[in-house]
Design goal:
Layout: H1 4-22, H2 24-29, H3 37-40, H4 45-50, H5 52-79, H6 86-108, H7 122-137, H8 139-142, H9 150-153
Length: 158
Amino acid sequence: NKEANKHAVDLGIAMQLTNIARDIYEDATMNRVYLPKEWLKDISIEQLTSSIQQIQSQMSIIIKKLIDLSEVYYQNGFSGMKYIPIKTRLAIFFAAKIYRGIGMKIKSNQYQYSNKRVYLNKFNKLWVTIKSLPEFIFLKRIYRSYTPIRESFQNENL
């Protein structure tokens, strides 16, 4: 279904934003930064790996922006699940929910910038899956609308 395309793209963007938020420190150690320069302002790549305490509050703001933005993309992605055949939908839905769980763990950690990678252990993954079962069953009722975001954020300084 062609209507599913924009939802699939948004789900991919959501998961990538979560990945970027989780891996800022690790990426910086490999001399990679996937954040807009406007967000970093005067923070250098060296500071991302050596001055964690000094830049903690600035980085927490950036991480929060990434996670908040990913949430809008997740909502759009989940609203398109109705276009996917049920057998495929099940795997995609729970994989995305588990990945979104990483973002929720970052949020529960107060968007703390750290050299420790945030992940979900097996119990966390199981809990996310169990907790998401009712949502999967009532998917069409919960996710009804689509928010066009890529266009609205193109020229905006996030």
